[in-house]
Amino acid sequence: MTEEDVKQTFSELNLKYKVSQEIFSEDVPAGKVLTSDPSGGAKVKVGSTVELTLSKGSDLAIIPSVVGLSVEEATTKLSEARLNIGQTLTVFSEKATAGLVAGTDPASGKTIKPNSTITLLISKGSNLVLVPNVMAKTTKQATADLKALGLKWVIKGKGTKVKNISPKEGTQVKRGSTITLTVG
Asked: Fewest CB atoms less than 10 Å from the CB: which of 47, 108, 138, 178?
């Protein structure tokens, strides 16, 4: 029974009501009566006031999106949502620049119990890099450039200068990808 239902029913019975408190309930939807004092079925005098306890609904927190925020801003936003940060992990992210928040685990939009602990994911930056121009460089120079970008390589042919590169320079690849250097 909602407060509106109570208002109508009590009016018909010439009774008054007062909402004494509102509490969270996993079983009773928000706005519905949880308990009354005196309880339902009890005899009361006409014109008496019945005290009601209404449900605030389920006490769940919704994880807000904090992608792109600083750690400090994300911590504040999560705290306001009644959530705690348990640990932080650094991850590659195409959504957030290095040092900013890339997301949470569990993900934003999920509902969990208030004061739960979540993991904050901090961006290491993009996992994608552009294949550098190493044409005509020595094998040693070329492999140093690839290593600096977190790329692996395979050398084909004999010689000391790079004659071809695959994938071609300027191609976007994931860190850890293998680049073929043809030398001559």
From this structure: 47
**Contact criterion met (CB below 8 Å) for 78 and 121:** no
Query: What is the sign, positive or negative, of the torsion defined by CA atoms of 19, 24, 30, 34?
Result: negative
In angstroms, rounded to a whole number, what is the distance separating the alpha carbons of residues 162 and 102? 37
What average pLDDT does the segment 50-77 reach?
A: 94
Instruction: Give alpha helix (H) positions in 57-160.
Output: 71-80, 139-148
Exposure of 89 in the CB half-sphere (CA atoms within 13 A)? 10
118 and 133 belong to one structural domain: no
d(CA 125, CA 94): 7
The tokens describing 141, both together, are 């120079």
Coil, strand, or helix at residue 116? coil
Q: Which two tokens stand for residue 59?
A: 């006490």
DSSP lists the bridge partners of residue 51 as: 18, 37
Neighbours of 180 (CB within 10 A): 12
DSSP H or E segment with residue 6: helix 3-12
Question: What domain count does the chain have?
Answer: 3
Q: Which domain holds residue 157?
A: 128-183
Local confidence band at 97 (pLDDT 50, 70, 90 cut-offs): very high
Element at 12 (helix H, strand E): helix 3-12
